[in-house]
Fold:
Amino acid sequence: MNIIVEKNWDNHPHIALVKLNRSKVLNALSNELMDELVQALFKLDDDQEVRVIVLTGDERAFAAGADIAQMVEENPVDKILENRFRSWQQLTMISKPIIAAVSGFALGGGCELAMTCDLIIAGDNARFGQPEINLGIIPGAGGTQRLTKAIGKSKAMLMNLTGEMIDATTAEKWGLVAKVVPAETVLQETYEIAKKIAAKAPVATRLIKEAVNRSFETSLKEGMEFERRNFFLTFSSSDQKEGMRAFLEKREAKYTGR
Ligand code: DAK
Structure:
């Protein structure tokens, strides 16, 4: 098993933990692992009980990139035929919030995988990098695109052209990660954040994810229009009534996800 899925993580009915499970090779993202990951995420996305997904590796590595042993002898035709872009594209179709809990190396495809998630919580031992240049290739899943949007052109150029890693504090300062926490608490801290998100109205959290992601792909005018439509849409949910009534009645809201 290249990944381990724990639904009801820590007995929480709405949080699922997905753990990359190739420790010996620093969770290198083999084709098989990526297929399993996409399948598992689709399953969790379809499960109405699940509201938040946490993706993690182990203490030494979130993931040290695509599996170099699998790629070394490949040619462009192999690449076209195996169509690996499809699984990476599919990751962006998950509608529920995914939090990356990163300890250790997040390099190449590992950094790209973390960036495909909705937010990154990093242990203070985390190292991020796009070292593809050291292998004579360039990133294939967002290292020149998502990273540039996250940290800006000059810093993205620095990381991509030198292949050097940055530490967690720098990653936070540059806007790549949301929060840095002591390495030994990264899962616990991520769980606490997941718990907060899981307590919100599920339809609204999905619409927020969709709208924030849209801001990367569209003009401000179109993005504002998109946000407005999603805003109106929330008023068709019973959770909007529940959220507002609960506020007025000075009680905690109980969301049903409808
Ligand atoms: N692939 C395969 N094996 C890996 C690996 C990787 N990316 N990274 C590490 N390993 C293996 C090592 O070979 C070693 O295996 P054994 O020798 O024990 O059998 C084991 O993990 C432990 O690694 P080290 O002995 O090297 O450990 P160190 O602590 O000394 O060094 C390191 C850690 C992370 C600095 C080093 O392992 C390293 O530089 N790893 C490679 C990092 C890297 O270059 N990553 C970028 C790979 S290219 C695409 C989507 C994405 C991509 C491409 C296409 N499409 C959608 C088509 C992504 C490309 C990449 O990520």
In short: The pocket of 4-(N,N-dimethylamino)cinnamoyl-COA is lined by residues 25-26, 28, 64-69, 84-85, 88, 105, 107-109, 112, 131-132, 134-135, 140-141 (CB under 6 Å). The two ends are 35 Å apart (CA to CA).
